[in-house]
Amino acid sequence: MVQSALRRLTVLGATGSIGQSTLDVVARHPDRFEIFALSAQRQDDKLLAQCLQFLPRYAVMGDPAAASRLESALRAAGSRTEVLCGEHALEQVSAAGEVDMVMAAIVGAAGLRPTLAAARAGKKVLLANKEALVLSGALFMEAVARNGATLLPIDSEHNAIFQALPADYTRRPSDAGVRRVLLTASGGPFRVAPLDSLAAVTPEQACAHPNWVMGRKISVDSATMMNKGLEVIEAHWLFGAPAQMIEVVVHPQSVIHSMVEYADGSVIAQLGNPDMRTPIAHAMAWPERIEAGVKPLDLFAIARLEFERPDLERFPCLRLAFEALQAGGAAPAVLNAANEEAVAAFLARRIGFLDIPAVIGETLERSGALAVDSVEAVFAADAAAREWARDQIRLRQAT
Ligand code: NDP
Ligand code: MG
């Protein structure tokens, strides 16, 4: 086999769940991947350990106090890694000429600008930050196309769909004979919990996902199924599929990561153990295949695969996401901002679990039809939606 050239990688959100899995894959292939930059928001101790192991040229911290702690610790350890701070630095290390690939694994809307910077610089963008597409799908896809960037989905469902589509797929489902995209969902920890028990759900219960280990925000999104709603919007932009062509299928075992149904009746699925190192390694090595440290799938141990229709009464966030996609314009950005605020308030025990969809629904109603034709307009809609969502959160706290 021909040895591939060493690829230089920036990992945005290196200290998070996806960031750590990415570095696990990198560590298995020192002959293929080299770290150019790592970033974190406030966990300087974790980033320090990663810097000492992977020797990046740059380490970017969001929080200035954490940046200076990191700087002192690196100097004390004799490291040559340079510490940068702030949002602009994230854009710099994403767009730098030496970089081949950017793993976009910052959580939330904060990931949009650096991810967009990577797309504009024509990089290979490994996209975990689904919020970037939800906020500004049209702008983002346009930046990818105009600058010759390569966009590879990391989200397990979208990575599965990517694998099940033809290699020359061009975002026109009918040209490729695609009839439907079947997006699988585990249903989260409350799939069968009594409906009247949901009001009292705690952050700990919501974060205890049955199949996946993830960051806290996406874990709550999985419990409300907003994660699947955001993924429907993500699939729409990635694969050019209209909302009616995307079907959510609850599949509690999380073994099939998604499927594509073709005009001839074929349904192509991608299966694997629920371990994010599979989609990460797939995207990092694409179009080659590399070892990812993932256990082989034991179909005999799994024995049974089940499928259910999603219950929209139990999971109103999924319905709200479909509505936002249909409404278009700024509605998905408003949905996302309201969700980020509501989830943060829930994790801080300021509102209850059932307040999450209520806050988002009220915010969407208040936002009306805002347009988004620039990144500035996206962030204006995002900021307005956060204000409205905070009003709703205050009201709910008071009652
Ligand atoms: P985590 O919460 O585990 O990690 C988030 C990372 O982003 C951390 O490195 C964190 O730094 C950094 N960060 C947080 N806030 C900011 C900010 N305001 N500015 C810059 N950096 C910030 O998240 P996950 O790894 O779970 O998720 C990352 C993204 O990947 C999300 O968009 C999620 O939807 C997506 N995703 C995750 C999956 C998973 O299995 N975890 C699956 C599919 C998609 P610090 O540690 O210092 O706080
Ligand atoms: Mg997913």
Explained architecture:
This protein is of the alpha/beta class. The chain has 3 domains: 7-153, NAD(P)-binding Rossmann-like Domain (Rossmann fold, 3-Layer(aba) Sandwich); 155-275 and 307-314, no CATH class; 328-399, Orthogonal Bundle (Rna Polymerase Sigma Factor, Chain: A). The chain contains 16 helices and 11 strands. α6 (130-146) links the parallel β6 (124-127) and β7 (150-153). It starts with 6 loop residues before the first strand and ends with a helix. The model has no long low-confidence stretch (mean pLDDT 96). The chain binds NADPH dihydro-nicotinamide-adenine-dinucleotide phosphate and magnesium ion. NADPH dihydro-nicotinamide-adenine-dinucleotide phosphate (NDP) is lined by residues 13-19, 40-43, 62, 105-107, 110, 128-131, 155, 212, 214-215, 217-218, 276. Residues 13-19, 40-43, 62, 105-107, 110, 128-131, 155, 212, 214-215, 217-218, 276 line the site of NADPH dihydro-nicotinamide-adenine-dinucleotide phosphate (NDP).
The gist of it:
The chain is built from 16 helices and eleven strands. It is an alpha/beta fold.
Overall residue-averaged pLDDT value = 96
Query: What is the CATH topology classification name of the largest domain?
Result: Rossmann fold
Question: Which word captures the global form?
Answer: globular
CATH class of the largest domain: Alpha Beta
Bound heterogens, unique: NADPH dihydro-nicotinamide-adenine-dinucleotide phosphate, magnesium ion
Structural class: alpha/beta
Order of helices and strands: EHEHEHEHEHEHEHEHHHEEEHHHHHH
Number of helices: 16
Number of strands: 11
Strand order of the largest sheet: 4-3-2-1-5-6-7
- Helix content bin: 40-55%
CATH superfamily of the largest domain: NAD(P)-binding Rossmann-like Domain
How far apart lie the N and C ends? 66 Å
CATH architecture of the largest domain: 3-Layer(aba) Sandwich
Number of domains: 3
Largest sheet features: 7 strands, parallel
Beta-strand proportion: 5-15%
The radius of gyration over CA amounts to 21 Å
Uncertain regions spanning at least 5 consecutive residues: none
